[in-house]
Amino acid sequence: MPLASVPPPATEAPAELHGVGGVEGVTPAYDQSRQPARFVAALGLSPGQRIADVGAGLGYFTLRLSDAVGPTGRVVATDINDEALKRLRQRVSARKNVEVRKVAPDTPGLEPGTYDLILLAEVDHFLPDRAAYLESLRPALTPNGRIAVTHLRAMRPPLVAAAQAAGYAVVSEFNDLPVHYLLFLQPTPGP
Questions:
Q1: Which of 139, 150, 133 is nearest to 115 (CA)?
Q2: Sequence-separated (6 or more) residues with CB below 8 Å from residue 54
Q3: Average pLDDT for residues 29-46, to the nearest whole number?
Q4: What is the reported pTM?
């Protein structure tokens, strides 16, 4: 009796991921909304700086952050999602100044006193306790370090309230994006 032929296994398409952002250049409307070049320019980064891209997902801004800090700078891109991290590692594999790191949902996993800027891009609404998470970021900042937060404008009030509760002040804001805010936080001086 002849053996039945078995078809080769189908190549699995990458699973659609939700809540991990996108990749620049894939969806023109999203790029138009996010304005990545204008956004990264507004961060005011310099070569040699150390940046944390918290909740980086697929790394929408990670490559631009890497370019902005140059070969002497460093970008640590964190996330909790294994598939997103796998895809991001593939995207940044040739970049020596980017480290991709898995973290726990309530722990930033960042070294103390290291980061000139910590970016939270469309991620704060996923945090179970925004204020507690912002407090946990404080030790990772350099003495003049800042936290940059961007999200849809409707998401600004809960973030500002959490920042104030966590002992941060809004030190500046960039309002030249179509539907997103970008604000910068620094710890308020202690008593």
A1: 139
A2: 78, 108, 110, 118, 119, 120, 123, 137
A3: 91
A4: 0.88
